[in-house]
Design goal:
Blueprint lengths: L1 H21 L6 H14 L3 E5 L2 H11 L7 E5 L5 H8 L3 E5 L10 H9 L11 E5 L10 H9 L3 H7 L2 E5 L7 E2 L2 E2 L6 E5 L13 E5 L2 H10 L21 H11 L2 H21 L15 E3 L6 E2 L5 E5 L2 H10 L29 H9 E4 L7 H15 L1
Parallel strand pairs: 2-3, 2-4, 4-5, 5-8
Antiparallel strand pairs: 1-9, 6-7, 6-11, 8-9, 10-12, 12-13
Helix pairs in contact: 1-9, 2-9, 3-4, 3-8, 5-6, 10-13
The protein binds pyridoxal-5'-phosphate.
C-alpha cells in the first residue's frame, strides 16, 4: 500500500482536496462519476456505489429478489461476508463444495444438487439465487452456472426465477470468456477494501447489475429505501458511499489496467521460478510428490490475481519459516464457512465438504501486489525451496 501511495500521492491528495473544496461529502457527483466509470469497465448496465463490499452483497441479493425464507447456494470456501450477507436478507445459505483445481464453487456439484433427487436429501426451500465467488481474482465457471439455472434448476427457476449473483469482491477487471466480472450475473458485488486490487482509503464497495431497474432499486435501498427525501416505500439502510472514497477510487481506476497486468506478470514469474526450482510439477496433480501445487487457471478466465495462492504440505511451518525471513503470507481461509460456529444451525459437520476442508489446511497466499519486484519474488521462491530442501 505504501509503495502504491508513493506513486500516486499528488493525484490522490488533489482529488481529496477537490471533495473538501466542494463540501459535498456523501454520494453526489464524485460517486455518480465513479458509478459510470465502473459500469463501463465491467460492461454492466449500471453501478451503485455503497459503503462496503458486504453492503454491496446485501444490495445485490435483495435486488435479485432474495427475501426471508429463501435459500441461496454459495461456496463454503470464501470470506465470511459471502454467507453473512445471505443471512442478513433473511435467507438461508446452502453451502456447496469447491472445485479441487480452482477452489471456486463447484458448478458440477451445484448441478447435481439440483438435478439428482437421490443426491439431495430434501428439496431446497425456495431456492432464489446462486452466489458464486470469483475467488482470488479468477471468475467461477459462469457458463456452467448459467446452464444450471436454465436446465438443472428449471423447476425452481419457473417457481422462483433463480438469479445468479456474483461475489466479485476480489475480481475487479477480471473476465470470463471476454466479458467483465460484474456483467456475468443479474447483480454483482465489489469490495474496495484497502488491500483490494482497486482500493479506497477506508471502507467502500459497489454493486453492478445488468438490469437498469435493479440499479434504481439498489439506489433506494442504500438510502433507507427512500425514493425521495423523508418518504419511505420499503426498508433500506444507510449504505451510502463517501465522496472522498469515490474521488480516491477514480484516481486509482486510471491505473487499474496496468496494475492488474503487473499482477499477472508477477504470477507468471512465480510460476516460472517454482517450476525452475523443481518445486512444482503439473498444475494440479498431487500424485507427483512436488511440495508446491498451483491452482488451476480456467482457459476462459482473465485472472487478475488478487491473491497468488499455492497449496503446500506443512503449511503452518512454512508460514512461520517465511515470517522469520520477514516474508509476509496469509491464509485465505483457515476454516470453511460450513464449520464456522455461527453456522452450526445448518447442521453440517467436518467431512461434509471435503475439498474445502482440505484446501483450508493447505492454502497459502504469497506476496502479490503490482509494485512487487522480480528480486523479491525470487527471494520468496528461494526461501520456499530452502524450507523443503
Ligand atoms: C470474497 C469477498 N466477499 C466479500 C467481501 C466483503 O467486502 P468488504 O470487506 O468491503 O465489506 C470481501 C472482502 O473483504 C471478500 O473478499
Amino acid at each position: 500500500m505504501r509503495r502504491q501511495y508513493d506513486g500516486i500521492r499528488e493525484e490522490v491528495l488533489g482529488a481529496i482536496a477537490r471533495v473538501c473544496d466542494s463540501q459535498s461529502f456523501i454520494l453526489g457527483p464524485e460517486v455518480e462519476a465513479l458509478e459510470r466509470e465502473i459500469a463501463a469497465l465491467t460492461g454492466a448496465a449500471g453501478a451503485v456505489g455503497c459503503a462496503s463490499g458486504t453492503e454491496a452483497l446485501w444490495l445485490a441479493l435483495v435486488a435479485a429478489g432474495v427475501k426471508p425464507g429463501d435459500s441461496v447456494i454459495t461456496t463454503a470456501f470464501s470470506f465470511f461476508a459471502s454467507a453473512s450477507a445471505i443471512v442478513r436478507t433473511g435467507a438461508t445459505p446452502v453451502f456447496v463444495d469447491v472445485d479441487p483445481g480452482t477452489l471456486n464453487l463447484d458448478a458440477a456439484l451445484v448441478a447435481q444438487l439440483l438435478r439428482d433427487r437421490q443426491f439431495r436429501r430434501q428439496r431446497i426451500e425456495n431456492l432464489r439465487a446462486i452466489l458464486p465467488v470469483h475467488l482470488y481474482g479468477q471468475c467461477a465457471d459462469m457458463d456452467a452456472f448459467n446452464r444450471t439455472v436454465k436446465e438443472d434448476a428449471r423447476e425452481y427457476a419457473q417457481e422462483f426465477g433463480v438469479a445468479i449473483v456474483e461475489d466479485a469482491a476480489q475480481a475487479i477487471g477480471a473476465e470470463w470468456s471476454g466479458r467483465g466480472a460484474g456483467s456475468l450475473g443479474v447483480t454483482a458485488a465489489f469490495s474496495f477494501y484497502p488491500t483490494k486490487n482497486l482500493s479506497a482509503y477506508g471502507d467502500a464497495g459497489i454493486v453492478t447489475t445488468t438490469r437498469p431497474e435493479m440499479a434504481e432499486h439498489m439506489r433506494r435501498l442504500r438510502n433507507h429505501g427512500s425514493p425521495r427525501r423523508y418518504y419511505h416505500d420499503e426498508f433500506g439502510w444507510n449504505g451510502r458511499m463517501d465522496a472522498i472514497q469515490a474521488a480516491v477510487l477514480r484516481v486509482k481506476l486510471t491505473h487499474i489496467a496496468d496494475w492488474n497486468r503487473s499482477r499477472q506478470q508477477h504470477a507468471a514469474t512465480y510460476d516460472r521460478l517454482f517450476a525452475g526450482a523443481g518445486l512444482t510439477s503439473s498444475q494440479t496433480s498431487n500424485q507427483s510428490g512436488a511440495p508446491v501445487r498451483l491452482l488451476s487457471r480456467s482457459p476462459q478466465a482473465k485472472h487478475v490475481f488478487h491473491q497468488y495462492v499455492i497449496r503446500v504440505q506443512r503449511r503452518d511451518d512454512l508460514r512461520k519459516f517465511l515470517a522469520d525471513r520477514k516474508i509476509g503470507s496469509e491464509i485465505y481461509y483457515p476454516l470453511p464457512l460450513h464449520l464456522q460456529p455461527v453456522f452450526s444451525y445448518l447442521g453440517l459437520k467436518a467431512g461434509d465438504l471435503p475439498v474445502a476442508e482440505q484446501a483450508a489446511q493447505e492454502v497459502l497466499a504469497l506476496p502479490m501486489f503490482p509494485e512487487l519486484t522480480e528480486a523479491e519474488i525470487k527471494l520468496v521462491v528461494e526461501s520456499i525451496a530452502d524450507f523443503y530442501s
